[in-house]
Amino acid sequence: MRHALIPLVLLTAAACDVPDALLEIPLELESEPYSFDVGQAIADFEAQACTDMTSDECKVIIALDETDDSAVSDPPSIPAVFPKTLDVEQCAGGVGCVTANIDLLEWAKDSGMLDDVKANLTIVAPIDVEEVATEVGVDIDGSNGVEIQSITVAWLSNGLNFATPDIDFYTAPGLLDPATSNGQALISNGTATQVGSLPGIDAGFEGANEVVFAADGETLLADALMGKQFTAIVALPDGLNIALPTQGDNYLKPSGIAEVQAQSVVQFEAGQL
Fold first, then answer.
1. What is the tens place of the pLDDT at every residue in 220-261?
2. Which residues neighbour 198 within 8 Å (Cβ) at sequence distance 6 or greater?
3. C-alpha distance across the termini of the chain, in Å
4. pLDDT tens by residue, 41-68
5. In this structure, how many other beta carbons lie within 10 angstroms of the beta carbon of residue 20?
6. Which residue stretches of the chain have pLDDT < 50?
7. Domain boundaries in the chain?
8. Are 46 and 75 contacting, i.e. CB atoms less than 8 angstroms apart?
9. Exposed/middle/buried for 179, CB within 10 Å: 0-12, 13-18, 19+?
C-alpha cells in the first residue's frame, strides 16, 4: 500500500486589527501534492498473481492476455480492453480440468485487483498544526477556538480512466507514520473517525472537490486542529470500490496517474505568543 506524507505548509497569515491579546488569524494551508499511479498498482497485482503461473488468478490473466493478439506477454498482462466474460480452464487435483465462464467484474473483486486500486487511492497524512501555528505566533492552548472556512482536495491533474465514488475523510489522533500505517485498518479498528466525505468525480475531472462534513464533522475536525497534531486519512468507504470502466460491451483496464493536493483555510482566535 502506498501512502503520502503530507506536511502542512503555511502560505499566508494575517492578523485583523484587534488587540494583541486576541488575534483572529486566518491561515491558508496546503499539503504537498500526492500522486496516484493506478497503472503501477495493477502491474504489481499482475506480477504478484503470476509468481505462480499455475494459480487461478494467473490463468485468468493469461487468458485475458491472449484476447487482444493471441499471444502472452512476459510477464502476463491484462490488455487495455477486455471482454466482460471469459472461458478459462480450471483444474482441480485428481478430478481433471473443466472450462468455466468467468464474470470478470466479479473476478476483479474476488482476486483482489480492485482492492489494490482502492489501497492506491488511500492517503495517510500526518499534520503538525502546532508547528505551523508557532511560525506565526499563535498559542493554540490559549486560543478561544478555530473556524474552518474551507477544506478541499484539488485534483491538479487527472489521467485516471475511471470515475470515483464518494471518498471518505477521517482524522486519527497523533502523527502516524505513512510508511507503516494501514489507512483501511485504522478505519476498521475505530482509530480513525470520519468527519466528512468528498463527492465522487468523473474520469479526468480536474479542479477543487470540497469536503462535505458529516453531522458533527466540522466540530470533530476543529477538535483535531485544536489538538495540535493529528493524521488525516482519505479512503474509499468500507465495502465500496471503483467500478470497472467500460467501452461498448467491453471493460477497460483501470489506469492513469493523478495528482491531488489538500487545501484549507482556517482561522484561529488566539492569544499571541
1. 999 999 998 888 899 998 888 899 999 999 999 999 999 988
2. 153, 166, 167, 168, 169, 209, 210, 211, 212, 234
3. 41
4. 999 999 999 999 988 899 999 999 999 8
5. 9
6. 1-22, 273
7. 9-37+122-272, 41-113
8. yes
9. exposed
C-alpha cell at 228: 495540535
Beta bridge partners of 272: 138
- How far, in Å, CA of 94 to CA of 143, rounded? 72
> Which of 116, 106, 135 lies closest to 37 in space, CA to CA?
116
| 8-state DSSP, 272 | E
Q: What is the CA radius of gyration of the chain?
A: 23
Q: Which amino acid is at 196?
A: G
| 3-class SS string, 150-169 | EEEEEEEEECCCCCECCEEE
Phi-psi region of 54 (alpha: psi -120 to 50; beta: other; left: phi over 0): alpha
Q: 92 - beta bridge partners?
A: 96
Which are the contacts of 122, defined by CB distance < 8 A and separation ≥ 6?
1, 3, 183, 184, 233, 234, 235, 236
Looking up cell 499566508, which residue turns up? 12
DSSP, residue by residue, 13-33: E---SS-TTSEEEEEEEEPPP
